[in-house]
């Protein structure tokens, strides 16, 4: 059947094997290889795709296996959604230590991309909280991997290429409840952003910012939050979710809409700046209530460009990238700027590392967009940075090699029965 | 009757049944008995339900679905221990029609597991629920049981048997305190139908179908089409004259 990822850039035929989690090993081993695991298809590019080949769909491997409410350790199959963990464990006073900006992703996908969230400077990335997982190799070998094992480090952030993750044990984080004490601030320059980030890192668990990439001077909104102490309660968010009802014939994000969008967003947020008690759902997952929002980019889909550059080049590189985008006039509505903390990631191919990360969405376009990407790549390359594989559909191979210095070590742990469009594009097989 | 105190699920490893179990266990603690063929699969589902609802009692039982004596003993033992408030009879397989035509053993297996076996379970539970004076039986039939079609009439005939059986039980148990729901799912995205999904058949999500079943049974409805649109579609299909119907490629 035709399968796509979140960026909707391709819709190629795939042979889909549905793994039911009751005998996943048998299905996996019997299927045509090479293939790649496919969870919710929420990665943006081609990391989860294998056009013309097999994908192992893990969404039905969605069972909890064990939970200890005293220690906050949960063991579950790899297809369990982060949303299920949050919902099920919150009443016991536990939540995921690290969650990305959507909770509609599988545990297996979160491990394979070693995802990060707004609290990286405090809690690192997803892999820091994995205590064990079971990996099924295409040879039929089943391995229990733990921190310290080389195969563990290869699989965390390993893009699904080291074997099929069957289940994982996660250490959760104790919470009083679903509430966060948050503060929203407007900033009007990149210097101000970096000052706010530095000031917030010690006292705030979550920090993130939205930046208006068309206003060259670096205007944006900074959001920070802490888990609320016991007894602090806010107003419950509306539970209704909406769905993007159709794919418009052209991208709704375009040269005409972007400036007014960004202007309006900035001024609305600035007007509401200040302290609040917020529920974790709207704070952490602002877009999860608009189902299929990726459709707004139209039938051609969109790219997300997420880079990280080391701290010493953070300000200069970010400024250069924003200037390049503003000059090109092709901007992004969902532009996210955030500093990562100093924690070293667990995985050989993990993306999160000390520095500054910038994420931008661009409706798929022609030569002009490719030129802009080349310009951004050059800035990232020069700064010694990297592009996030989980978001990527186009980075040049040399930038991948320079951005992931442990690649050679990683390649030794690849499973020969597994291959994806991304692995063929960037690793040659 | 709600919340149901003791729920028994026959064919508990089916995706639809498993999602119904999650909904019945959500919120309030229940006592649930999961019945199936394979103990290790049942254990995986029981472990999941235990995490979702730690205060519930989840038991598993294995049974030979093709043995009337085993079905009798299972019901006998269950009711000897405690009352059963609700039973969902959900087991079945989706055979490939051509194989049923080519191999009579295949045809017999399909007719038995999808028709006779569920009917025997319903019979075993109906009498005992009648004796206790309350209870609810959910029998999973199918839209395929509404009219025989060339693409799946062996399966459809078995599900048609389930339909008539449920009607008969409803007639017999009217006013007894025991309610029988006949559930007719349309094509649902489950491991059972994955071969058909690959061919592009549009399917309802298992979560949606399970929610339809749980809500329909809670409302005590006699016939539950899930999703609801199949009620109208099948009404049209049932009433098409043969000279039109027989020319359709469905």
The fraction of residues assigned to DSSP E strands of chain A is 15-25%
Total of helices of chain A = 13
Give the beta-strand count of chain B: 9
How would you write the strand order of the largest sheet of chain A?
A: 17-13-15-14-20-21-19-22
Helices of chain B, by number, come to 10
Query: Which value, in Å, is the CA radius of gyration of chain A?
Result: 21 Å
> What is the CATH architecture term of the largest domain in chain A?
2-Layer Sandwich
SSE string of chain B: EHEHEHEHHEHEEHEHEHH
Average pLDDT level of chain A: 93
Q: Classify the fold: give the CATH topology of chain B.
A: Rossmann fold
Number of strands of chain A: 22
What are the main properties of this structure?
heterodimer, A: 429 residues, alpha+beta, Uridine Diphospho-n-acetylenolpyruvylglucosamine Reductase, domain 3, Alpha-Beta Plaits, 8-stranded antiparallel sheet, 5-stranded antiparallel sheet, 22 strands, B: 250 residues, alpha/beta, Rossmann fold, 7-stranded parallel sheet, two-stranded parallel ribbon
């Amino acid at each position: 059947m035709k399968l796509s990822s979140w960026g909707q850039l391709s819709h190629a035929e795939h042979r889909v094997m549905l793994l039911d989690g009751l005998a996943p090993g048998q299905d996996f081993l019997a299927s045509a290889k090479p293939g790649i695991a496919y969870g919710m298809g929420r990665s943006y590019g081609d990391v989860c795709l294998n056009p013309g080949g097999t994908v192992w769909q893990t969404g039905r491997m969605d069972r909890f296996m064990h939970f200890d409410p005293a220690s906050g350790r949960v063991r579950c199959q790899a297809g369990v959604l982060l949303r299920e963990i949050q919902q099920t464990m919150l009443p016991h006073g536990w939540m995921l230590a690290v969650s990305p900006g959507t909770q509609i992703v599988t545990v297996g996908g979160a491990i394979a991309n070693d995802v990060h969230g707004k609290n990286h400077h405090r809690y690192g990335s997803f892999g820091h909280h994995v205590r064990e997982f079971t990996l099924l190799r295409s040879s039929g070998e089943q391995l229990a991997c733990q921190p310290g094992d080389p195969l563990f480090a290869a699989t965390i952030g390993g893009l699904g290429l080291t074997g099929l993750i069957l289940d994982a044990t996660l250490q959760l984080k104790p919470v009083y409840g679903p509430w966060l004490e948050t503060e929203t601030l407007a900033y009007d320059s990149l210097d101000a952003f970096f000052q706010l980030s530095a000031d917030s890192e010690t006292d705030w668990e979550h920090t993130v910012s939205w930046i208006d990439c068309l206003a060259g001077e670096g205007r944006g909104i900074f959001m920070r939050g802490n888990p609320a102490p016991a007894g602090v309660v806010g107003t419950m968010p509306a539970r209704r979710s909406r769905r993007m009802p159709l794919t418009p014939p052209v991208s709704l994000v375009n040269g005409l809409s972007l400036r007014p969008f960004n202007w309006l967003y900035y001024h609305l947020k600035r007007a509401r700046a200040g302290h609040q008690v917020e529920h974790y759902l709207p704070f952490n997952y602002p877009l999860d209530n608009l189902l299929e929002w990726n459709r707004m980019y139209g039938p051609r889909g969109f790219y997300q460009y997420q880079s990280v550059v080391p701290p010493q080049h953070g300000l200069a590189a970010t400024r250069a990238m924003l200037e390049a985008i503003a000059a090109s006039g092709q901007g992004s509505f969902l532009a996210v700027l955030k500093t990562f903390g100093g924690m070293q990631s667990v995985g050989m191919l993990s993306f999160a590392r000390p520095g500054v990360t910038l994420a931008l969405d661009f409706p798929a376009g022609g030569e002009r967009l490719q030129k802009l990407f080349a310009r951004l790549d050059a800035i990232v390359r020069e700064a010694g940075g990297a592009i996030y594989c989980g978001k990527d559909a186009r980075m040049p191979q040399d930038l991948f090699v320079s951005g992931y210095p442990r690649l050679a070590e990683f390649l030794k742990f690849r499973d020969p029965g597994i291959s994806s469009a991304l692995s063929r594009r960037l690793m040659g097989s | 009757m709600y919340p149901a105190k003791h729920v028994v699920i026959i064919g508990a490893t089916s995706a639809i049944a498993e999602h119904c179990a999650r909904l019945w266990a959500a919120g309030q603690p229940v006592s649930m008995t999961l019945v199936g063929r394979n103990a290790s699969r049942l254990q995986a589902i029981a472990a999941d339900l235990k995490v979702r609802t730690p205060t519930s009692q989840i038991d598993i039982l294995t049974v030979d679905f093709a043995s009337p004596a085993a079905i009798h003993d299972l019901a006998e033992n269950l009711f000897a221990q405690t009352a059963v408030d609700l039973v969902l009879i959900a087991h079945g397989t989706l055979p490939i029609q051509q194989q049923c035509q080519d191999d009579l053993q295949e045809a017999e297996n399909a007719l038995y597991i999808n028709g006779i076996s569920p009917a025997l379970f319903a019979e075993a539970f109906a009498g005992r629920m009648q004796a206790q004076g309350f209870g609810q039986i959910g029998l999973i039939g199918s839209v395929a049981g509404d009219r025989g079609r060339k693409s799946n009439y062996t399966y459809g005939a078995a599900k048609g048997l389930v339909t008539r059986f449920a009607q008969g039980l409803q007639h017999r148990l009217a006013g007894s305190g025991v309610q029988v729901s006949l559930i007719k799912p349309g094509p649902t995205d489950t491991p059972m139908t994955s071969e058909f999904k690959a061919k592009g058949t549009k399917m309802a999500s298992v979560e949606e179908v399970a929610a339809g079943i749980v809500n329909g049974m809670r409302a005590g409805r006699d016939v539950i089409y899930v999703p609801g649109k199949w009620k109208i579609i099948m009404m049209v299909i049932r009433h098409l004259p043969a000279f039109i119907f027989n020319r359709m490629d469905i």
